[in-house]
Amino acid sequence: MNITNLEITQATMDMFFCMFCIIMMVSIKANNSKQKSMKVFLRLFLIAAVLFLGETLAYIFRGNLGAFDIIVTRVANLMVFAMNIAMANTYVRYVCSVFSERGVEVSGKNIKVANIFTGINILIIAVNLFYPWMYYFDAANYYHRNNAWYVYTVMSLVVIFTGTRLAIKYRKYLEVRSYISIMLFSLIPIIATIVQFFIYGFSITNLGLGIGSFVMFSAYMYDWSHDSDDEMNRIKDSRFDVILLFLIMLISMSGSIIACGNVIQKVTGENSQMQSLTIAQMVSAEIENEFIKPVTVSQTISRDIDIRSHIKGKTKEEAESVRDDMTNHLISFGNEFGYKMVFVVSDETRAYYTYNGISKYLDIENDPHDIWYKEYLDSGKKYVVNVDTDEDNNWSLSVFVNYGIFDDNGEIMGACGVGVDMNELVDMLSGFEEKYNIKIDLVNHDGLIQVDTDGSSIETAYLDNSYFDKLPDKDFYYQLSDETCYMTKYLDEFDWYIVIRDDNPMKLDANKIILPIVLIFIAGVIIMAISFIIISLREKKAKDAYKRRYEVSIKDELTGLYNRRGYEVDCEAIQKNGDLKEYVLIMMDLNGLKSTNDNIGHEAGDELIIGASKCMNNAFSGLGKVYRVGGDEFVALLKGTRKKVEDAVKTFDYLTENFQGKLISELSVSKGMVVCQEHTVLSFDEIKAMADKLMYEDKDEYYRRTGKDRRRV
């Protein structure tokens, strides 16, 4: 399969965007949003995935002539154009649905306009199946634009502009990030499409669609991660989803770019060689075609009955007698085929007939200008080609085709041929050299230059012929030396070699191809990173806000200690983790709170509660948490040895004994402490019951000691 590095680059990027759209589809579907806009959004990326798949196939299979390749190329291009306009239409519907959900009365005319222009494009695509007025494929199975392509592109832009106009008109109903993403989704492809008018061979438009899709999805991910009812699950899971998606995209993108870069580096030389050889083949074919005519004309002369009869068995006297007839024949051939030199040589008389009659009698032994005839006879070939001066045309340099004339028995009767003006050949080679920036030489077996645009080199300069024996039968031999390549081919028809020198063999600069891809990759990573950072920062902010709300929900408003909900949550966690033995549980109850409220007032009661909580917090905060689980009921869940906890209890007793408030001067707390490590066979509930019992025993002792009536306090 033939595929260039440019096609590999495009196909790789299209495969990445196709995979990216599939990932987006899965993520959107997983969210299972019931909103109409999200359903249209999902459809948008489904269409994009099909579009990029089609373009991937188009770039992989184009330029190949197998029946399957031709079918796939045509179907893939049809997919691309059909999905392109479908994506533009769906974009308009998405924008309309977004604003409708925000309470905007969007006119149905917008979708009607989009549908009209979409219908026109569908018609263009359908007609193109039968008449290639939008695009066509050449004999090499390559896609080419046609006139209707520009109409199709303008129609697509009108559809996209419809959605863009809506976004601009109702921008106040959108968050900034959503508005920017919607605008970029349209503006990037619009700019790319305009650029596409002037750039051919690389799909800038669909590349813009891919980048726009990524921007849209980044905004969607942000909104999704901030739109969950279950805040705790969102905080834990959403960030994980974003990280996972970011890693998948980063790995996929990196893999695509690395693979693409490696392939480009490997195939750049190969494709440059292929392009150089393609140029060489075209030039060689043109030169060979240029020589077909003189060879054919020479062959025609050699078979002419009158020519054969005029030289067969003739003496010099008889040769003179047919001179005028031969001259007229040669002039006739020259005028008919456009040659200044047409000649015939009689082997018997060695008479050399031209337009001027018998120009001379060849002396192949003594005259160096006549040695060509001896060389022809010695070659044993039907015809040979040589460079010589044309004595009958002001000694101008010409390329002669010397074709043998044979009788019915195959015996040599003489030779004939035509002379091609060297200037005509030089002009042809000059055109090729200027067009393709190459140097062309025709040389013989010895490497002696026969045809060159530099006249001083002809028949005087030599090229290296040491590798001529390595040449394939009917193809070019490619040699790359430093920054110059030589392509050499043997031209069997002339027994010459064509040597083409290319001083710029690297037709495709891998760095120039890879650079924009890398820049796009970096831009994509930056966008992903920025999106992730934004989401992470917002997640952190949301998490902090949730923690603050959670802390408020588990804290007692009056004392600042943890409340009953916080106590129950921690107890559940202790039981779940199975680390009860590490704790010391202290149940506490204020003494005399009811009496204080009744006799002094609730403000004094609050002072009593707050004072007790401060004493608890100061004494126990280093070892664990303290909870207010009722009006005058407190619990401490502490970690540490019995001694540490007992020391903390002593500190607490000291603080309460020395408490002095504004309204009250006495603070007493009953306690019941259980070291869980000492009662491992008991359950948590049994531990609580034991601590509660000890606390009430301590309370009874307080009332006995003070002589107060418990019923009144």
Which structural traits does this protein have?
single chain, 713 residues, alpha+beta, six-stranded antiparallel beta sheet, five-stranded antiparallel beta sheet, 19 helices, 15% strand
Summarize this entry quickly.
The protein is an alpha+beta fold.
Structural features, described:
The structure is a single chain. This protein is of the alpha+beta class. Helices cover 59% and strands 15% of the residues. The protein has 19 helices and 17 strands. It has helices spanning 5-31, 36-61, 67-101, 109-128, 147-169, 176-196, 204-225, 231-302, 305-311, 316-321, 323-337, 371-379, 422-436, 510-553, 564-577, 593-599, 602-620, 642-657, 684-706, and strands at residues 135-137, 143-145, 341-346, 351-354, 357-361, 383-390, 396-406, 412-421, 439-443, 449-452, 477-481, 484-491, 496-502, 583-590, 624-628, 633-639, 669-675. A 6-stranded antiparallel beta sheet has the order 5-4-3-8-7-6, with helices on both faces. It has a 5-stranded antiparallel beta sheet with strand order 10-9-13-12-11. It starts with a helix and ends in a 7-residue tail after the last helix. Residues 227-237 have low confidence and may be disordered.
